[in-house]
């Protein structure tokens, strides 16, 4: 195990792991010292390992898939060597990958703690392993044999969609897996992006619906409205109207779009912010907030939640800031 010097302490290199078929970059890239975010520079696509075993595959999708719809395409298989397995099946597998804070104390021969090492490592689990009988995948193939079939399988009915939260990732893959007796299974796999379905949010399914798609939400004596269509797509602008008669006592105000998540290593983050004069809030004002491209959609599933709020703040000297907020949905 290598040792590096980081933040004034010795940091032993650590490894993060994800299960097959999402184990393509398992190892030191999925870990880092205390305060780091190893997943920030990892894309869901690069997690998927193309396969393990003497089969070469091509999995071609017909188009983009969305929650609650179908995933359709063609699977083509070629056996480089002969295989003889118990069974083979096409599966849709879902991964939840989280940054997790770890720590370890080191003691001397007398049992006294001499140092404590803290780090962040990535840990992944499969929360969905959905197997399908069609198309029927051959369990036995001779060397050089080819197989091709179309498939049409249901995408996750209620989600979650593919999402990169920064500190956690939800990813999906199509996998053909062969059950090898007394040995490691063969598999081939391909990354499948599954987009959030705006109709799911509009229908109020899960925690991401409800007030997050209303035009106007009352907050005490105030009202926060959204003047552009909801849910708002990532990469677009959202129009916000604020009427807050009691917004007073401060010289600086701002309207923010904030992210809220329960990811283990996640934090509340400001996605966009626009300054406003608090006096303009009293009679009503409008602003526009830009949602960055690649912003993760609103969702809850696989034990993860990702939500957004529009928050209006007034900075008041020598007193706590005044703030109101409402939920808002993003796809």
Number of helices: 2
Rounded to the nearest angstrom, the radius of gyration is 25 Å
CATH fold name of the largest domain, please?
Immunoglobulin-like
User: What top-tier CATH class of the largest domain fits best?
Assistant: Mainly Beta
Mean pLDDT: 93
User: Helical percent range?
Assistant: under 10%
Q: Beta fraction of the residues?
A: over 45%
CATH architecture of the largest domain: Sandwich
Largest sheet geometry: 7 strands, antiparallel
Oligomerization status of the protein chains: single chain
The 3D shape can be described as flat
Which structural class should the secondary elements be placed in? Answer: mainly beta
Number of strands: 25
The CA-CA distance between the termini, in Å, is 42 Å
Task: Sketch the topology as an H/E string, one letter per element.
Answer: EEEEEEEEEEEEEEEEHEEEEEHEEEE
- The tally of domains stands at 2
Low-pLDDT segments: 1-11
Give the arrangement of secondary structure elements.
Layout (H helix, E strand, L loop, with lengths): L2 E4 L2 E4 L18 E3 L17 E2 L2 E7 L3 E2 L3 E10 L3 E2 L2 E21 L5 E20 L7 E2 L4 E9 L8 E2 L3 E12 L6 E6 L2 E2 L2 H5 L13 E4 L2 E5 L10 E7 L8 E10 L7 E8 L1 H6 L1 E6 L8 E3 L2 E12 L6 E7 L3
Parallel strand pairs: 6-16
Antiparallel strand pairs: 1-2, 3-10, 4-15, 5-7, 7-12, 8-11, 9-10, 9-14, 13-14, 14-15, 17-18, 18-19, 19-22, 20-21, 20-24, 23-24, 24-25
